[in-house]
Amino acid sequence: NGGKENWLPDGKQIIFSGHESGHPDRVFLQRVDSGSVRPITPEGVTPASPSSQKSIEVSPDGKSFICKDHGKMAICSIEGNSQPQPIKGLDDKDEVVEWTADGHGLYVYPSGEPMLKISRFDLATGRREFFKEIIPADRAGIFTPPTIRLTPDGKEYIYSVRRYLMDLFLADGLK
Length: 175
Hints:
The chain is mainly beta. The protein contains no helices and 14 strands. The strands form four sheets. It has a four-stranded antiparallel sheet, with no helix packed on it. The protein has a four-stranded antiparallel sheet with strand order 5-6-7-8, with no helix packed on it. The protein is globular, with a radius of gyration of 19 Å. The mean pLDDT is 86.
């Protein structure tokens, strides 16, 4: 479903977004060895990332992932045995890049901006700390915000931009 999936750290399971016929989207867990699939979120609880190019953000310990519960950011259990836990302090415009390596925080930035102003967000306190600003060297032709992947330690990243460049020609003397 639009590239929203991710392997769990054990390499034996994958989570993905999808829906059963006639039902809203939700997140499912599939075991690779048996192929068995089961839903792990209530209907309507989906991956947090609005970008179809991003995978589901799974915690470093493989026990939870970032989801949206009726439009609000939350943490969902991979086991599917509890209700989504709201993340206080994140708003609808925040985009989650990655979990921090210790699993106690997230790297986030406001979506829709031409530059990425990334902050570390502490899940326990809701406190944000500026981390890094990434500005494409040449912003000509960029109409959509960049997408980014960041390592959990925050030391390395890769981002992509989509450019729409055109040539304008002036025709003189046409009748």
